[in-house]
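Chapter review: from sequence to fold.
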Amino acid sequence: MARPKEFDANVVVQDAMEAFWERGYAGTSVNDLLEETGLNRGSLYGSFGDKHKLFLTALDRYDQQGWAMIRETLDQPGRAREVIENWIQSYAESCTGTEGRRGCLLCKAAMELVPHDPEVAAWMRRVGRRNERYLARLVERGQREGDIDPKLDARAVARFLWNSLAGLRLMGTTSPTRRDVREVIDLVLRVIVKSPKRQGAM
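The token string follows.
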């Protein structure tokens, strides 16, 4: 049954986001969206525009939810190295089991649409630059604290970490074991974090 005219837009966007996340952009038809949201065609188009505009709105919602959780982790007190380690290690849970097999909506959108969709590509670049800037500041703090190799470029480290985590989310769709994921995480951390021996040599 269709939702009444006074529907909750937040609920509709959340339902649409879940549909796109599950099926992908091309795999989600307008009829799928009508079924998932409970709206009729007129209400859907009148309130959210076409399918593409709704998809961009759904991306915003997904990013807002994910970014809030990331910020909560990265804004924790303590040494920057430990904050980064805890953040990366928290991805282990999202890369295994049912959650891991579902993958990441942003990664799916990047692979499916970025090569031929200028709006989605621009959206991805904007979000990517924000992520990179934010994490680079934390990396720089870790370098000042003496825990992260000062010879590394902080922006490059931030890009490396984001791309590594995106790769882990993609890996998660293949049902890796926890050990598989842990081995990747351990290697990522060894690339950027100075070992105790090297710290003592400074």
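Two observations follow directly from the output. The CA atoms of residues 82 and 170 lie 25 Å apart. The chain has two domains: 1-61, 76-201.
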